[in-house]
Amino acid sequence: MKQVTFYTKQGCHLCEEACKLLMGIPVDIPLQIDVVDISFDHNRDFHAKYFLHIPVLTFSDTGRELTWPFTAADIVACLNQSPKD
Predict the structure, then answer these.
(1) Count helices and strands in the chain by DSSP H and E runs
(2) Could you tell me the end-to-end alpha-carbon distance of the chain, in angstroms, rounded to an integer?
(3) What is the share, in percent, of the chain residues with pLDDT greater than 70?
(4) Can you give the pTM of this predicted structure?
(5) What pLDDT does 23 receive?
(6) CA 66, CA 42: separation in Å to the nearest integer?
(7) Do 2 and 29 form a contact (C-beta atoms < 8 A)?
């Protein structure tokens, strides 16, 4: 199973666009998407790391990170990347 973490915050129109891109990608593999809202106090470390870069997608199997702007093709390329690439 591929695991993607989507770093976002409420009221971010770019995050909404990124979410539409991510949800619109057809996948034929199991995919788990974890959503992390960086504006909450318990996510303070992520806020410090990603505030200027959100929306951000991270891919746990490869360690790859996409920061905005990215396209659906960028997401697909990351999903198709193997951990050895």
Answers:
(1) 3, 4
(2) 17
(3) 98
(4) 0.89
(5) 94
(6) 23
(7) yes
